[in-house]
Design goal:
GO terms for molecular function: calcium ion binding; calcium-dependent phospholipid binding; calmodulin binding; clathrin binding; phosphatidylserine binding; SNARE binding. One of its GO terms (biological process) is vesicle fusion. The structure is a single chain. The chain has about 400 residues and is an alpha+beta fold. Among the domains are: about 135-255, Sandwich (Immunoglobulin-like), CATH 2.60.40.150; about 265-400, Immunoglobulin-like. It has six helices and 16 strands. The strands form four sheets. It has a four-stranded antiparallel beta sheet with strand order 5-2-1-8, with no helix packed on it. Strands 4-3-6-7 form a four-stranded antiparallel beta sheet, with no helix packed on it. Strand 1 and strand 2 (about 150-160) form a beta hairpin. The model is unreliable at about 1-10 and about 40-130 (pLDDT under 50).
């Protein structure tokens, strides 16, 4: 009987040992599984946060990465502030590798998109400069104290924009001493010239010096138009109290948009339909919006004139009815013009929105020139019309002075 307990005692220790081993193993397994789930959750959360950071510009990391994209080569943009509740070591272990790869990917894709995109900031800047390039003018000014005479000499202009549908301009210059607009002087018109030379001298005689320094010399360059109102090209103004008038001073000044020609004149929606077999173009004047008010009452009485031009000569004219007191008129009137295919290159359709006035001359609200050699929007409409024969092609156009 004494041996029996001993015989059973040894297995009991073995069983206990095996049980202990099994217990420890199960505990380790449970802990490891818990850690695995925790790791998965943490890794999943970190991956999710990385994606959210890339797509959310409002987050701190998103701002840092966005800033890094805009910096020039060699620049640095790094967010070194620690995240609350984490040690720097944990932050480094958790964020270094994923952030580097995601950030590099975003930087690479963004750089490629900026290089390939036609609307990048650099292109827009160049495009804006080209639109605002109105040329420049050279002139000189001086005062003769003995004769109380102000002398203004208009020398020349360079790189003027083409205002006529023929791809050129007929420039001349008006000279004012603001605020007096009644007494103006004008140069001669230089026909078909974007780099005109005038070399004309103008005298403002009997002008006391104390009044001269209170005036502003204002030069306005215009394109002469025989059949309608002259088109403004650009202007320059210079206060005479800022000029040393004791001797002739010569200036080169960039032309700025004319104040009387600035501001929106409204838009016109029209369609073009070209039929090559019938040798005709149908122009449909659909509607206008936000037209400039030309009358004292803050409104206009608009109608539309459509001229067919061939080699700078007027061939045929059509016009719509007049819409009384309406800045957003709907016309829906179509006009057909016979145009042989071989003459398309030399053809221009001039569309003029007018304000009807019973008591005086009708006012021009704005114009549109449609041809192969007009502005970008007009040329696009013309080419779309050719590319889609027998189909009406509609487009909005900004009215121009």
């Amino acid at each position: 009987e004494e041996g029996l307990p001993e015989a059973y005692g040894a297995p009991t220790r073995d069983v206990l040992l095996v049980s202990a081993i099994i217990t420890v193993s199960l505990s380790v397994t449970v802990v490891l599984c818990g850690l695995c789930h925790w790791c998965q959750r943490k890794l999943g959360k970190r991956y999710k946060n990385s994606l959210e950071t890339v797509g959310t510009p409002d987050s701190g990391r998103g701002r840092s990465e966005k800033k890094a994209i805009k910096l020039p080569a060699g620049g640095k943009a790094m967010n070194t502030a620690p995240v609350p509740g984490q040690t720097p070591h944990d932050e480094s272990d958790r964020r270094t590798e994923p952030r580097s790869s995601v950030s590099d990917l975003v930087n690479s894709l963004t750089s490629e998109m900026l290089m390939l995109s036609p609307g990048s900031e650099e292109d827009e800047a160049h495009e804006g400069c080209s639109r605002e390039n109105l040329g420049r003018i050279q002139f000189s000014v001086g005062y003769n104290f003995q004769e109380s005479t102000l002398t203004v000499k208009i020398m020349k202009a360079q790189e003027l924009p083409a205002k006529d549908f023929s791809g050129t301009s007929d420039p001349f210059v008006k000279i004012y001493l603001l605020p007096d607009k009644k007494h103006k002087l004008e140069t001669k018109v230089k026909r078909k010239n974007l780099n005109p030379h005038w070399n004309e001298t103008f005298l403002f005689e009997g002008f006391p010096y104390e009044k001269v320094v209170q005036r502003v010399l204002y030069l306005q360059v215009l394109d002469y138009d025989r059949f309608s109102r002259n088109d403004p090209i650009g202007e320059v103004s210079i206060p005479l109290n800022k000029v040393d008038l004791t001797q002739m001073q010569t200036f080169w000044k960039d032309l700025k948009p004319c104040s009387d020609g600035s501001g929106s004149r409204g838009e016109l929606l029209l369609s073009l339909c070209y039929n090559p077999s019938a040798n005709s173009i149908i122009v449909n004047i659909i509607k206008a919006r936000n037209l400039k008010a030309m009358d004292i009452g803050g409104t206009s009485d608009p109608y539309v004139k459509v001229w067919l031009m061939y080699k700078d000569k007027r061939v045929e004219k059509k016009k719509t009815v007049t819409m009384k007191r309406n800045l957003n008129p709907i016309f829906n009137e179509s006009f057909a013009f016979d145009i042989p295919t071989e003459k398309l290159r030399e053809t221009t359709i001039v569309i003029t929105v007018m304000d009807k006035d019973k008591l005086s001359r009708n006012d021009v609200i704005g114009k549109i020139y449609l041809s192969w050699k007009s502005g970008p929007g007009e040329v696009k409409h013309w080419k779309d019309m050719i590319a889609r024969p027998r189909q009406p092609v509609a487009q909005w156009h900004q009215l121009k002075a």
